Each structure stands twice: as structure tokens, then as C-alpha cells.
Amino acid sequence: SKIKIINPEGKETNWRGMFDWTEFVGADAFWYLAGQTKAESSNADEHFPWVEKNMSKLPELGKEAHNRKLKFGTYIISYLTFGHYKYKNYKYAYEYNSEKGGPVETRSISISDEKRISDIIKLIKIFNEIPEIDYIGLDYIRNALGGYELVDEFIQDMNIKVPDGWEKFNGARRMGWLANEKVSRRNIKLIDQWQWWRAHKVSKIINRITKEVKLKKPLWLFTLTWEKGWQHGQDPIMFSDAGMDIDALMLYEANRQQFDMLLDDWHNYIKKGQANLVLGNVVDWPLHQKILNPPGPEEFYNRLIDATKKIYNDGTADAIFIHDLARALWGRIKPYSSKEWMLASGAAITEMRRLNGLLPITAKINLPAKLKLKEEFSILLVLKNISNKKQKNIIIKPYLIGGEILGENEKIINELPSGQTQTIIFRGIIKLPAWEKDLKNMVAAQVKSDKRNATFFKYVTAK
């Protein structure tokens, strides 16, 4: 409740600023992290292992979203914990570190821990009964760190061939054997079995949640994307069969070449009817390799749109997500501004809608690719009504990042018949060179019709 946010107009506001930005980018929904486990002391509450301050405002947040015709979702970090302390009644996962003498306990709870599953189910039941919540989500629904404590269960379930004298191996030695087999990649079949078995185990957790809770709301999962999630013990088709409604794919932490390979991998694997994919990218310049050409926000946009077009082998994806508002406001965004990243986010949402035949009006920004500093220039915006009905009361607002819009900064078209075009002209000037951005400035426009923003942008060089 004490959070301070700079809204799209550049003014400081309270938590309602989260929804100001949601409307700014033209999104349909806002997803909020509510279930987080953080041991603040050695006497952490074992009965309710969740940060309570994240919970208290959920009905109010949801009500505000609904007042703005937005959907509201809450999600839980399932198996990763935070804080300097640990809960005594949880079983934690182990990774293997030979430099530290073998198995090392992590801050990730084991996916075999019965209490954790029970705690997650109890919290989901609470969310399920809050009418202001429309979606329920799970993040880190995997063995977030380590996982070698699962060795005995894995060996038994998958009938894995083990070394002679296995029954005499202690737990540490068994974990060491599995870690060595996995890291050395000598036995690819065993690695495939390990990936499949973990995905199957998590699928059973998902299925148990859906059955015990009797969910009234769609369930989404955040999942990783290397090797279609298999590398992380996740699988979209398996999870979908288990009861997942939405798979929010985290398509990040890759360079462009890796990203293209990742898309090809998914494209060759999945059809639209097999899993309901929502495609996500992260607002983070280093995770876009600090790219300047194209500019970071443009590369962010390009990846989302390429994924929308290519992820399925039989159609276009029909949903994306932006990860996330906190990063866009306070993260690793420089030299680009929050508004620049969010305009690119809005443009990605707009283009995704166009690709799915859901956009009523398109716009094209016409101006020279190269501009001179300290000289006024015209920004021509060509609008076209691509819907089958007349559009009325269309509001157009231009943006010039690093420059200034001269004269009118908003115009209204009273009506635009179906199939018709109209050109709107704004004036702008750029006075200072954007050296840190390779002299590139974003020119953008938002077109508001049917009470929703559509965003369009273009980068120009000014020197």
C-alpha cells in the first residue's frame, strides 16, 4: 500500500499506477505476485509460510482492475524460497558441488515435499474463493535448484541401471553418481529419462491441485523454454493434459541466434490444440545483449512478434505477456527509458492483435529515417480502419522520446468509416544527440478506439 509509482504521465502515484501502465500498453489483464515464501527469522511461521503483506490488498487490487475492465490474476512462487533462514518442516532440494564436498542444500524446496504441496493447495483454495481474482498462477513449478535428493525415487520409478554395490552407497554417494552422469552427458538416454520423469512428477502435482481445489478460475504456469522446457523438467503438452489452462512461456535469457534456434525447436514440436501458449519477453537490456542496432526496445518487440508468428507450426499465437512492470520501472533498462520499453510493449500487444484479426485501426508513422538536430520536422501518421464498422471518437497521441512534440499533442478523429484512411500530422524537434543510444530516437503514437490503446513506433537517427 506504500508503493510509489511514476505513472505514464510522469506523475508520482500509489499502487493504482500499476493499472495506469496496464491500460497504457493496452493489456487485458494484470498478474500480481502474491504467494511468496520468505523466512525472515529462525522462528518463521510454519503454518502459513507466505508473505502476508502481499495478500491483504488482493480484493482491492482486483476490484480496481475490474473497475477498469481489466482481468486480475495472482500467482505463487511454488518451490523457490527467499530470506536468510529456512523453514524447519520443509524438505529442501540438494545440488551437487564437488568443491564443497558433495551434496549442498539449496533454498529450493524439493518437489517431493508433501507439506509444500499441501501449503500450495491451501493458498490456492483461498485465491479460488476471492471473487476479484480471475486467474491463478504458479511460478517455479519445478525443482528450481538441485533435485538430486530425488535420486532414489527416480531410480526406482524408471528402473535405471545402477553401479554394482548400489545398495551400499549412502545418500551422498548416490546423489554424486546421478550428478556425474547428468553433467558428463555420457548417458543421453538417462538424461532424457531424468527430464521426462521430473516433468511427469510435476504433472502429477498439477493434476492433484486441480482435483483437490476444484478450480473456478483458469490456472496458468510460468515455464522455461530451453528444449521445450524439458531441460527444466517441464513439458507443455504433459502439463496441459494434467490440467494447466495457460502456459506462460518465458522466452528470454538467450541471444538472437539462440532465440531463433529456440523458436525453431518449438515450431517443430507443437500445434495450437496441444497447449494454450502465452508468449513472454523480459524488459531487460542486458538480456537483449545491450543491443543498440536495432535498439533494445525494438529487439524486445521483434522477439515477441517473431514468436507470435512462429511458435506454433499450424497457426499464430493469440496472447503475449510483458515481464514485468517492476523491471520496466526500476530494472536494467538504461539507456532507454521506462516509457520507451512500455511503448514497445504496447506495440507488441497491438501487432499480436492485428495478426489475430482483432485490431480495428492500424497506423503507419511516416518521416525520414534521418533527422537533423534542432530542426523541426513533421510526423505523418496514416490511420486505416481495417474493421467492418465505422470507428468513432478516435484519440491520437504522439510521443517523441528524447525530443519534444510541438503544438498539439493530441488530436481526435470524430469518425473513420470502414476501409478508409486518414492522415494526421504532428510536429516535433530533437535538440540533443542521443549518444548513448547510437543517436536513435523513438517516435511513437497511440491510437485509442473502443476505449483501448493501440501503439505504433519507429526509430529515427537524429544528428
Q: Supply the helix-strand structural class.
A: alpha/beta
Got a strand count?
22
Shape call:
elongated
CATH topology descriptor of the largest domain? TIM Barrel
Number of helix segments? 11
Distance between the termini: 44 Å
- Largest sheet, order of strands side by side? 3-5-9-10-11-12-13
The level of helicity is 25-40%
The CATH top-level class label of the largest domain: Alpha Beta
Radius of gyration: 25 Å
Main sheet record: 7 strands, parallel
- Overall mean pLDDT stands at 95
Strand content: 25-35%
Level-2 CATH architecture of the largest domain: Alpha-Beta Barrel
Low-confidence stretches: none
**Number of structurally distinct domains:** 2
Give the SSE layout:
Layout: E1 5-6, E2 12-13, H1 17-25, E3 29-35, E4 38-39, H2 58-67, E5 71-77, E6 82-83, E7 92-97, E8 102-109, H3 114-128, E9 135-139, H4 151-158, H5 171-184, H6 188-213, E10 219-223, H7 236-242, E11 246-250, H8 256-267, E12 277-282, H9 296-310, E13 320-323, H10 325-330, H11 338-355, E14 361-366, E15 370-371, E16 377-385, E17 391-400, E18 404-406, E19 411-416, E20 421-429, E21 440-449, E22 452-462
Parallel strand pairs: 3-5, 4-6, 5-9, 9-10, 10-11, 11-12, 12-13, 15-22
Antiparallel strand pairs: 1-2, 7-8, 14-16, 16-20, 17-19, 17-21, 18-20, 21-22
Helix pairs in contact: 3-6, 6-7, 8-9, 9-11
